[in-house]
Design brief:
Length: about 450
Amino acid sequence: MRLTILGGGGFRVPLVVRALRAPAARGLVDEVVLHDVDPQRLRAIANVVAELPGGMAGEGPVVGGTTSLDVALRGADVVFSAIRVGSAAGRVADERVALDLGVLGQETTGAGGVAYALRTLPVAVDVARRVAELAPSAWVVNFTNPAGMVTRAMGEVLGEKVIGICDSPSGLVRRAALAAGLDPAATVLPDYVGLNHLGWLRGLWSDGVDHLPALLADDGRLATFEEGRLFGPSLPRLLGALPNEYLHYYYYARESVAATRAAVATRGETLAAAQAELYPALAASPSGALERWEAARRAREEGYLAEARPAGEARDEADLAGGGYEQVALAVMRAVLTGEPAELILNVRNGSALPQLSPDAVVEVPCTVDGTGAHPHTMRALDAHQLGLVLALGAVEDATVAAATTGSRSAALRALTVHPLVDSARVAEQLLDGYVAAHPELAALLVQR
């Protein structure tokens, strides 16, 4: 079995390789091919992987690398897509254009997410077409953000062979289950619904009992985990649900913009500066590469959503240890390759899971995954608040996909204008002008009215 990782020079790739060398994953794949368009990033991550237990060709799968997309895809059984179009510099521009106009620029939920999607969707569709030609039987596990839109766009080419993943929902369920006194390794059935980075945990069932109401009523237990502290006790009680951490940008939009503007640097600027120093050092020599990467990984995790947390509040040690995306991705891969069912929260075509939404929408819900793919569970209806926000973001996604696939400038403007986090139609016009000026690929794309 051959696994290809697109974006193989990505920072988190060593976590995937390390997980593949763990006893639980042993024998799942024989070969891992890392693909990246940047030779230096590829060399840097290869040096880190070489120092992982087992080395490049030791225990677990053999790991190689290439800058040729066709070479990477040909013969692949599973493809992990984790690309970043425009690199870190693109993210910095997405954030700054928005912040300069007083709007949240976060790369997946704010106006920056629209700009990121406009750059990424055409590339993701091209990748999907190459997969269809060179590895037509391969499963694609999509990490690339914005995950819902990218999964939807690739699915137009590859159908249900594309499965989108995010570790936020599974992390929320795990943390809430522990806070409720449940064993996350036991059977815990989450009632989680929404879109990528826009979902709510509405129930936490075990042995026929929903433990979420008691958790929401207990200030002490809510204070023991990240989302409980992030939202405080009052808001989840008002909602009757625990929001995904990214909903902080919606429920506290004003505070999020103020905190981000007051920071010395945006998240993108911080990561770009760190990577500009780290990657050349990693590429220069394998000696000590793993130690340098591990220190950088921990610093990166410590800064995650820092603008949403009270000053000085540290993340829980368990959340700094890794084990997010890579574990979800490997669980999906194991299920589709072996046929052994797994229960996971994933981004998949809606079908009839949420009848209030279009069957073609990509939703984030609990699924059963097996050798035939990911099958979403039928979920109870969204309440009026949840439905309103989901439909509003669905309209943003529809317009963004239309702009990316047709080159329509008016569709791109519509996406920004109707976005709940953009509070002025005039600002939406300024945002689009700013993004087109910052990104030559958008100037080349948006040529239709």
